[in-house]
Design a protein that fits this description.
Blueprint: H1 3-12, H2 31-35, H3 40-44, H4 46-58, E1 64-66, E2 83-89, E3 93-102, E4 105-114, E5 121-124, H5 133-137, H6 149-158, E6 165-169, H7 171-176, H8 181-190, H9 192-215, E7 221-225, H10 237-257, E8 261-265, H11 274-280, E9 284-286, H12 298-305, E10 310-315, H13 317-322, H14 325-334, E11 344-348, H15 358-374
Parallel strand pairs: 1-6, 6-7, 7-8, 8-9, 9-10, 10-11
Antiparallel strand pairs: 2-3, 3-4, 4-5
Helix pairs in contact: 4-15, 8-9, 9-10, 14-15
């Protein structure tokens, strides 16, 4: 059975030969993609190189790309000529600054990435006060048509070893990411009408991108990301319903009508919103985090979803870094401790953004081995 077949059959609830094993980050890419990546640490990490070969040889991969047009400047499709970009480089970091010329004034954003790290750290958000909201909403949607070449390049490189995943920002995260997170959370309570208007605008733009991407041949898995910013304790369930649920449900309907699969990526406390996932007819959720990182045990989540959703979970990132191979195997075996292996994908809650440690390398290999051994049907 090919990796692609194993993944899709698992999501459909059909019989397979083994539970799929999903490793994210650099493991979600064919080596050809990593070799051309700007993240030079990946190409220079000998532990990663060895482990990547082992994973690809023995497991399926989950290659991914971001939905074109899904940038987080309120998902704007603006003329690139409106942005003045400035890049700075040093021995320890690279930095960019954007000046966005809007009809109502200039907005500025800055970010920095340190050497041997994949994470971009925001230095300046474009929205400093709610007065800046008018500026970002005033940007004309006059940009060029989106291109989908990258998706098809990765798909071709992956072949039958895996099934393509398209990353789709939930509209709310397009709003929360243009201001400090503290400002966003406070504004959902003090100025809910403004936040709701911004999310509504972002949702309409993202819907356009989603429909265009599907029509261009993207699929079959669409992974909607970012909703944990509105789940308890970040916000109440009523805020989740207004800013997340109604839009994600519409997206899931669009995805399903095209014959594809909807996956929700949501960290933290998901127990309260599992009923929403069932109503949305979500096909896959990841991760499934037990306390203290989340509030629902994997077996409990199985019982609550009753085989209607494929659960992708869950070895915590901290355990990859600090645990032992023996404990990692026990954690993998626990996923099947109820005797059920259908609708399960073995995965982790997160993945490293810089060089692997010796211990993490051992534990990732232990996860792969435990999945291959204990995931047989």
């Amino acid at each position: 059975m090919t990796g692609k077949e194993r993944i899709l059959k698992t999501i459909r609830g059909e019989k397979t030969d083994r539970v799929p094993i999903r490793l994210d980050g650099p493991f979600s890419m064919p080596w050809e993609t990593i070799a051309n990546s700007r993240n030079s640490w990946m190409r220079n990490d000998l532990l990663l190189i060895d482990l990547h070969k082992y994973y690809v040889k023995n497991c399926e991969i989950f290659p991914r790309t971001t939905l074109p047009g899904s940038n987080r400047f309120m998902i704007n499709n603006f003329d690139p000529g409106r942005v003045k970009e400035t890049f700075k480089h040093s021995d320890t970091y690279e930095e960019f600054w954007d000046e966005i010329d809007t009809p109502k004034g200039i907005l500025t954003k800055g970010a920095r990435r340190y050497k041997n790290d994949s994470t971009w750290w925001t230095l300046k958000y474009p929205v400093d006060t709610l007065d800046d909201v008018e500026k970002i909403l005033s940007i004309p949607q006059d940009g060029p048509e989106q291109k989908y070449d990258k998706f098809f390049e990765i798909q071709e490189a992956a072949g039958e070893s895996g099934s393509m995943t398209v990353l789709v920002d939930t509209p709310m995260i397009a709003v929360s990411s243009v201001m400090t997170f503290e400002m966003f959370l406070i504004s959902t309570l003090t100025d809910p009408e403004i936040i709701e208007e911004m999310v509504s605008v972002a949702a309409a733009r993202q819907k356009r991108n989603l429909v265009n991407g599907i029509n261009a041949g993207l699929g079959p898995i669409f992974r909607i990301m970012g909703s944990e910013q509105a789940t308890p304790p970040m916000n109440g369930i009523e805020v989740y319903d207004k800013l997340v649920y109604k839009y994600e449900k519409e997206y899931c309907d669009i995805i399903h009508e095209a014959g594809h699969f909807a996956q929700i990526h949501c960290h933290g406390n998901i127990k309260e919103i599992l009923p929403r996932f069932l109503e949305e007819r979500v096909d896959v959720i990841d991760p499934v985090e037990a306390p203290p990182s989340g509030n629902v045990d994997f077996i409990e989540a199985k019982n609550l979803t009753a085989g209607k959703i494929t659960l992708a979970g869950n070895i915590q990132f901290d355990d990859l870094e600090n645990s032992t191979p023996e404990k990692i195997e026990e954690a993998v075996k626990y996923l099947f401790s109820d005797g059920k292996k259908d609708h399960v994908i073995i995965t982790t809650s997160a993945f490293p953004t810089t060089f692997l440690t010796e211990n993490m390398s051992r534990n990732i290999r232990a996860l792969i081995d435990a999945g291959l051994k204990n995931g047989q049907m």
